[in-house]
Predict the 3D structure of the following.
Amino acid sequence: MLSDYTPRKDWPRPPAALPHARLNEPPSGARVTVAGLVLVRQRPGTAKGVVFVTLEDETGVANVVVWQKVFQRFRRAVVAGRLLRVTGRLQRESEVVHIVAETIEDITDMLDDLLAPPTPSHDRTDQETGVRSQTIAVAGASVRL
């Protein structure tokens, strides 16, 4: 995924997700997509319906601003989602970077893939040729690679 672009000249455009550590590269106003685990949801009483969400991926955190109209459209995802993908405009003020959300997708079901048991496999090396092969079980059948 990350090998198909070069730093500072191109960045993943939606729906590919930009690693949070690279949020300093796109210019302010660029449309980007980020994904991550929800660390914090805040809805201060003084914020006039604005919700602030902090997402974390393996490279860092991303601050997401969800305006009231966007919150109303994606309420279920914002309130219940544990893993979100957010597309929006990058906003930069000095060293602080925010994503102003346009669309929010609950991708919590992808967390289940992490819990799935690995497919059984068996490595072996052919004694005559020294060639290593791998046999995996797929739907009850063995496939030799």
